[in-house]
Amino acid sequence: MSLKRFFKPIEKDGSAKKPTLSSKSPEKNPNEDEEINGDNVHNQEPLKFLTWNVNSLLLRVKNNWSDFSNFITSLDPDIIAIQEVRMPAAGSKGAPKNQGELKDDTNAAREEKQVLMRALSSPPFGSYRVWWSLADTKYAGTALLVKKCLKAKKICFSLDVTAKKHEPDGRLILAEFESFHFLNTYVPNNGWKEEESSFVRRRKWDKKILELVLKLSDKPLIWCGDLNVRYLLLTLLAILHIHEDIDVSHPEFFATAKMNGYIPPNNEDCGQPGFTISERKRFGAILKEGKLVDAYRHLHKEKDMECGFSWSGNPIGKYRGKRMRIDYFLVSEKLKDRIVSCDIHGHGIELEGFYGSDHCPVTLELSPTTADLTEKEASD
Questions:
Q1: By C-alpha distance, which of 185, 53, 65 is closest to 125?
Q2: Which is catalytic among the residues 104, 206, 226, 245?
Q3: Which of 52, 53, 73, 116 could tie 361 with a disulfide, CB 3.0–4.6 Å?
């Protein structure tokens, strides 16, 4: 969720004590280790996935990396999808940016890149290849980590699959595998006002993402990330405007939230970004038309006030204890019978398991197909 100034004090990326850099700090991006279809890959499909909005990857590396590394070691996911990287794209001031590479044209940028590259080259992350899609500044951005032994057929970074460019602010990475598409997105926050950078921007995104989902119908889809919205349950209570929702902690609080007293002209745009009726209706339409299943809710039918939310407000202030589930794994209906687990790994209002972010990791595991089992036996 991007409106950090309302929910949680923003940490400065340089505020933490910086690790000492050795003279042998790796300069090379892990991306450069191999081609997508290198000799050391095999056809076994990914089965274990993790998504996490890190709220600045650099801060997580400096402050929370040991605990998160242990967490990844224990889970051993095949794919790690990261949102809100908040690292600038390569390119000097005023020059075109390379959104697939980290900025390193100043001493400060070079040092920060080295810190990240060292972290991503160390166990367990050294066994993953990394793709970046970055903004021009320390804002938004996504990353995708795929085990080097797995075979991605194609990677793209745009809502238009025919385009070679990245999305503005690096909000999307799409990977194609043999039997499915994998989509990692950091969806723009709806904001509070009827203006170009707020409601208008989000409406345009929702229209384009629906078009993309429909274009990807040639294979099953796994779509994950910080989707910045809560699905609208069209129950009788909702129709009567009684706010009952199992995926938010305080429905009435979010439904009546305002920014400096501003009330949007359309009643359905009122309320907390991520919880307005209009954006939730659009999200529901995307799921319905795209034939997508909410993996977590497919397995977990009841409200869980302890472990059922992926985003939490600042533990200090009026947002203390105010939580939502806005980080998802959505899968094509063809995959729903293969869902083994989908879990939210943070809990409580003190943000345990959030590793310093205001979002916690969410994981998905699928059961292997017959082809997967055959490939595994052959590789063993």
A1: 65
A2: 226
A3: 52
pLDDT tens-place string over residues 290-336: 999 999 999 999 999 999 999 999 888 999 999 999 999 999 999 99
What CA–CA distances, in Å, run from 92 to 96, 102, 141, 154? 8, 11, 18, 29
104, 136, 186, 328: which is the annotated catalytic residue?
A: 186
Question: Could you tell me which residues come within 8 angstroms of residue 270 by beta carbon, excluding any fewer than 6 positions away?
Answer: 255, 256, 258, 263, 264, 276, 277
CA distance 304 to 279: 24
Model confidence pLDDT, tens digit, residues 130-141:
999 999 999 999
Q: 184-222 burial string, b = 16+ CB within 10 Å, else e?
A: bbbbbbbbbeeeeebbebbeebbeebbebbeebeeebbb
Helices (H), 97-175: 107-121
- Is residue 186 annotated as part of the catalytic site, yes or no? yes
Q: What is the pLDDT of the chain when averaged over all its residues? A: 88
SS3 content of the chain, % helix, strand, coil (to 5): 30, 20, 50
| Distances, alpha carbon 130 to alpha carbons 101, 119, 155, 251, 379, in Å | 10, 12, 11, 38, 24
Q: What is the pLDDT of residue 8?
A: 45
- 226 catalytically annotated: yes
pTM, entire model: 0.88
